[in-house]
Amino acid sequence: MGGTRFIGIYLARLLVEAGHEVTMFTRGKAAITQQLADESDKDYAEFSGKVKHIQGDRLDFEGLKSKLSGTGFEAVYDINGREAVEVEPILEALPNIKQYIFCSSAGVYLKSDLLPHFEVDAVDPKSRHKGKLDTESLLQKKGVPWTSIRPVYIYGPLNYNPVEEWFFHRLKVGRPIPVPNSGLQVTQLGHVKDLAKAFVSVLQNPVAIGEVYNISGSKYVTFDGIARACAKAAGFATPEIVHYNPKEFDFGKKKAFPLRDQHFFTSIEKAQKDLGWAPEFGLVDGLADSYNLDFGRGTFRKAADFSTDDMILEKLGIKVAVAA
């Protein structure tokens, strides 16, 4: 379900390489497959020729059921599900499914003074990811063999969320990087290719049935540390980092910083123990992979917007040199 924007692009390749028959269910508005920057024409042609497609809208529940009924799919990877009501029709259409693998989010955890977050920690019923929690509950209630993956911040080539891209935009033009408060807030980033491997590791794995797994990088990092890691990965000079108090500004609906302003990180010990999985990318080499295969080639999802930066820098009395 989904799979044409980011996570699924890498997951589909691993599944095809493993010999599985892969079908994408999408609205058909985007290309079903796309060639990766470091992928040969031959490898891409071989991969794309093996991926099938069903066009439909998952929110058209009756249409979805008619297209999935009788197909005999044995496993579902639900990458873009947001609400439990979107999952129920899939279960009805595929009553004999052997595993439903759901992409949830570590954002479901209740904010806590005790970190890292473990899979057994309290969740936040008011989270903006409440629909993810409801889906996990539905899968459990229906008695479906299921597994849920809870990533933290995902990064890597083709990332449509401005995580590393936000930093790269500023580094490229030599601007100061505005970071809220002390910059010592600790968080966690995980590479999309490591996430894709984790998704594959739970498929047909009896240990993973009925389980939830946090998936991310093995190291935690401060906000300031991300800025410096991005610079090192992309070959830029050590950046000038400026700190500000977000309470002193009204940014309207714009986000002045791409990450939540709090400590936010998880334990990945359970996945390592149960699945034999471990992240292969360290933060700097992972960011280098993202830069070299995406932003460094001139491709990105969102154009640079420095309007909130300018508000911050003006208040702090910091002038920015603009190239002629």
Mind sketching the topology for me?
Elements (H helix, E strand, L loop, with lengths): L6 H11 L4 E5 L14 H8 L2 E5 L5 H8 L6 E4 L9 H6 L5 E5 L26 H13 L3 E6 L1 E3 L8 H9 L4 E4 L5 E2 L1 E3 H11 L8 E5 L5 E2 H12 L6 E4 L24 H7 L7 H11 L13 H10 L8
Parallel strand pairs: 1-2, 3-4, 4-5, 5-10, 6-9, 7-12
Antiparallel strand pairs: 8-11
Overall geometric form:
globular
Poorly predicted spans: none
Number of helices: 11
- Mean of the pLDDT scores? 96
Helicity level? 25-40%
Instruction: State the secondary-structure class.
Output: alpha/beta
- Percentage of residues in strands: 5-15%
The largest sheet, given as strand count, sense and whether it forms a barrel, is:
4 strands, parallel
User: Biggest sheet, strands in spatial order?
Assistant: 3-4-5-10
Compute the CA-based radius of gyration.
21 Å
What is the N-to-C order of secondary-structure elements (H for helix, E for strand)?
Answer: HEHEHEHEHEEHEEEHEEHEHHH
Total DSSP E strands: 12
N-to-C span: 47 Å
